[in-house]
Amino acid sequence: MKRIYLFLTVIIFLSVASSLIKAQDSIATPQAQDESKLKISGELLSDERLLLKDKNNWVWNENRLTLKFDKKITDNSKFYSEVWLRNIGLPNLTTSSDLYNKGIIDPNNLEIREAYIQLYGFLTKNLDLTIGRQRIAWGKADKLNPTDNLNPLDLEDILDFGRHRGSDAVNLNYYLNNNFSFQGIFIPFFQPANMPVGIFANALNPTMELPQGMVLKGYSDVLLMPKYNLGESAIVGGKFKGIIKGVDFSLSYVWGRDGLPFDTRNTFIPVDTLGGITINSQLSFARTHIIGADMATSIAGVGFWAEAALFIPEKDIIMTNDLSALYPLSPVPVTMDTKLLDKTKPYIKYVVGGDYNFSDGSYINFQCLHGFIHERGNDNLNDYFFLRYEKKFFNEKLKITPVGGGFIVTDWKKLKDNYAIVYMPEVSYKATDNTEIILSTVVFDGKGDNLFANLRDYNMFMFKIKYSF
Amino acid sequence: MKDSKIRITFLTALIAAGSIFSVYAQDASTILKQMDNVMFSSKDMSAKNKIILIDKSGKQEIREATVQQKGTDKRMFRFTSPASQAGISVLSLPDDIMYLYLPAFGKERRISTSAKNQNFAGTDFSYDDMESKPYSDKYTSKLLNIETNVFVLELTPKVQSDYSKIIVNINKTNYYPELMEYFDKGNTKIKEAHYTFKKVGNYWNAQEIEMSDLKKNHKTKMQMSDVKYDAGLTDDDFSVRKLKQ
To answer: Going from the N-terminus, what domains does chain B have, and what CATH number goes with each?
Structure first.
């Protein structure tokens, strides 16, 4: 298997190299030389948020310089990269020694979001190859895409729905004609999702219910990463897409791995005689088959889309609670198993939505989603209804979104105690061609244990300024 | 007897008026087809587009794009500046199929045909104005006047439109439009477009179109340069594959 992998890598490398060398000769004219110069563009974003209550604590500080490098290598190939240079977070100083650490005083980071080479007409004129770190965005819905499962989720900012990181991948697109194409993806190693930070840090963590009389005194966990080999770590995907009678559609399959870990083993250890315990957990990432389908069309001026993904766990996901340490005299291990996911009971996440542009410059967008990004298993999928109405003024310089947000239902039978409301009005103003100022607030409310109801203490005011160059 | 004379005179007058009207109507449609031939006769076209937005105080904003067109129903429009819009591309295909590519999303998005209700990218042109469908397919025509240099035609939409009518002045010698005046459903003039044509090879090219929105007191100048006709663009150049490149 290893040899085949090596052989394929060498073949692809040689083919890419020879394509580039051959095509390099074709750049001759001054215009072609000008077009092949490295183009640098980007964006400066400042994103600041503060709480609406109490002393208006600052909760988010991000200053991001996005640099995009785009170089046409030949008529049939290009290089592209996107890099983030960021100052993110607020200084978190606790001891005097932190004063010696510039990384704590002024947290910065660098992220290579994408860096790939794209070859059009690779080996045959109908085949395109993209190789390197890349974002492979699937799905026809708006930002919330159940079929978008190749790249790891980037959950750092929970309000930036649908953000993913790039993956190191080989991406082949074969075009049967201008209406139908096949896509094949190979991602050699798995990368998990990165979790929310700052005030959102615990937003996706499930609440833990302990048996009566037990008090949690400590918690630790071990993450069981899949081994970095083809069988355990690789992700493979395929998609067939096309258009028939004005309807765009695609059918897809991913042999992937869930990027959010499951708690598969909890070992309870008593630490005192008053019921105090510590828990050591093992977390692992489940192999999953994902079958997807989506469509988009326009009927009587209204845009419609629908997207669904069927998630089939490769194995049952079982959480074992090991209570043996609490029963030292028991001759056999004392464990309790809970089936988190049953491989015979696949679950479906879906989105349906639509939008419409009015002649007065206003726009409305509605989406109904079953199963948010972090929800797994038929019993845990909630319903989300999102609505956005915006209107542009002064030749699109000013955009006001008086209605923006969602309504979430976690239990239809006990609706009044299991819902959430998110309200996000926004005003954006283009101060210059390349400068945009965005002011918005987000208000959370609701009852019950759900993502947005749990954020009800974090209503905030947000200010963003973006400059593109 | 007297009655029958009156009847004959009336009938003759009616037939004569009908014939004159029919000649005018026929002439109007022939003139409009001639204009379509001048505007849409090339097999394909590619050009650079400079869009100048001018507000009522005279302040200008400039956008640049490349445009490629094949026949009358395939068009690729790519913004190259300003930086905030560079890379945004719109592909228009037959049967009102339109795709938008936003580099930030990394994928194409099918857009609803209601997008045509709004102006194109903040300009004073509607999507309808930007379409390259022959006017004779979309409008019935009536000859209103023949002036020294121009034919004046009234165009009434055959299908649903934002306009109740368009009055167009067509150059008598070369059959290109010089002026179009757009009227809303209340018959009020809301926009006007002044055309400047220049011959490029065998074709007349709209080198500049100045569209004025009379309500907003706002103007858009659309200037074409580096125009190439019949360069052999294929259907492959108007595909989602190309849109994303």
So the answer is: 5-243 (2.50.20.10)
